[in-house]
Amino acid sequence: xxxxxxxxxxxxxxxxxxxxxxxxxxxxxxxxxxxxxxxxxxxxxxxxxxxxxxxxxxxxxxxxxxxxxxxxxxxxxxxxxxxxxxxxxxxxxxxxxxxxxxxxxxxxxxxxxxxxxxxxxxxxxxxxxxxxxxxxxxxxxxxxxxxxx
Length: 149
Prior knowledge:
There is one protein chain. By secondary structure, this protein is α+β, with helices and mostly antiparallel strands. The chain has three helices and seven strands, in the order H-H-E-E-E-E-E-E-E-H. The protein has two domains: 101 residues, Ribbon (Seminal Fluid Protein  PDC-109 (Domain B)), CATH 2.10.10.20; 44 residues, no CATH class. Helix content is 28%, strand content 13%. A three-stranded antiparallel β-sheet has the order 2-3-5, with no helix packed on it. Strands 1-4 form a two-stranded antiparallel ribbon. The protein is globular and about 70 Å long.
C-alpha cells in the first residue's frame, strides 16, 4: 500500500513538473528536479515529452515527434538537437553547460520551410521580422540593401 502511494505521488509530481516546465521561461525547477523525469531510451516521442540524458543527467524536451525504435540510427537519439532541446536556467546554481546548436537544429515554427536537399532552412517568422525592420528603417522594401544602413 505504501509503495502504491509513493508510485502515485511520483507520477503526480512528474505530471505537474512537466506541465510547469513546458510553460516556464526559466527551466530552473525542471533542472533542479530532473530526477523525477524518466531517462531517455529508444521509443516513440511526442512534442513536449521530457526525458533525461542517460549520459549526463540533464533534462531535454522533445521538439519534433519521432520514433527512435523504427529509426535506429544515431540521428534519432537525445543528442540530436533537431529532435531534443536542452533546458537552461538563468540561475547560476542550476545553469547547465551551454550546448551550441548544430546544423540539424530546425525552427519549430509551422510556417518554416525546410529543404533537406540543400540543407536550407528558412524560418518564416524570422523573415517577417527582418522585412518589417527593413521597411521601418528605409520606409520601403529595399531588397538590394537588406541589412545595410
